[in-house]
């Protein structure tokens, strides 16, 4: 697809002019308006501790206040009150040398007994690597901790350090409140922690976000003018109409985004409503109408209602409601919640008033493949996975974090098939990150095939000849037999997913090759995993691809009030890597 070339071409000029601003903003993104509630501080402070530690080490003097504590046992040895104390002191020193923060924490509890403050204060009494150990042990009872130190020794040796630490404790919350709004990482329940694992990213300067959004808006206008509406193939029996679709992805509950959506209705649907639906998601910088021939073939040959939304690729979006972001993926998954009427309302606006099918196959091309992988993972969490018949990835990739794609796919029960229809590994499919993600998630089952000599756009068929030519010029021209084979493979897999069998599709052993006839000639496939690659002029840029992927971590997201939940609802925060 045009994913990366057009990305570099359209954003290249922008990034060249913005690079200085991005680098400057990355270093200076530490202060901004506060937005977290007091209840959230305890949850979010741990993820922002590395930054706080650096600030404390320069602005305050924790070393001076903690050093007397750390040397306390040595200074007390010449003054034991009896032989028992003299014998116990060395033993205590051995057990506390590496757990200094544990010893010091109880000394502050009588002074400031607030749960959130205790978590924030840990870096002031210990080195950064020990911060997590302190948090884990801070709830230890005061009586048990104080029993380790003789009462007479505590009176003479801990009074002065305690006073020095009190000054540090008073200053710490101010620093935390300023830093918390700049970096908040999603924390999730143990079962889904890997999906939402995040890393603190530099804050994107507002001017960069503004200019980037302007560029994407202009690009969207241009593609609508040039791409036009969906165009059906000749002699098609399918009806296509367009409307808008509401997706609950926003910074506040009850709000969302309205996106264009094309509805493909098979013949006779009004009299005999189909029981199948296909959610078809386009790739990066593409649009739903560019897949009109693919969608029409799927609707006609699988007797399914096909909906193809067009979602922005603007990764500068302040609310993170773009094609590659987790909040948008969850918003899409909400479409299949019980009681959500967005799909029915969109279909009715497009002229279809029949019932929305209960069973769905998720299908996504390129970055759309990463998107539907995220949808599937969220459907598991939202307990709507019973509606999912299967997932088909059309050379699907994930740009920002391939591991997140792997974990989303791993959540899906093994009895729900997930297949990848891939091109050989090359520049346009991000050198096979999507293939690797699926193979890693399901190492012991059939996960799809590679089209021999295929292109990233084999499955991307539309009725606009200008768009069709441009995408093949960019990503590599498709062989007619491979385009026909891609359609046959998709249709066979989808029909089997809905039927719950493996009678119509092609299924092979890992690495097995197979050739078959298509209306355009013989095509060949090799089952995944395999070692097929494709030569392309841009392949030499492979070492730079991770650097380009880093651009997609500059992502502002909406964090829930309960940081442990994967949801886009809540308040808008800045600079979150997802």
TrEMBL record:
Skewed-composition ranges (Basic and acidic residues): 105-118, 140-150
Organism in which the protein naturally occurs: Mycolicibacterium rutilum (Mycobacterium rutilum)
Residues spanning the signal sequence: 1-24
Keywords assigned by UniProt, alphabetized: Signal
Segments crossing the lipid bilayer: none
InterPro entries assigned to the protein according to its UniProt record, in alphabetical order: AB_hydrolase_fold
Protein name: Alpha/beta hydrolase family protein
SUPFAM superfamilies: alpha/beta-Hydrolases
Top-level division of the source organism's lineage: Bacteria
Gene3D superfamilies named in the record: alpha/beta hydrolase
Biased amino acid composition, Low complexity: 125-137
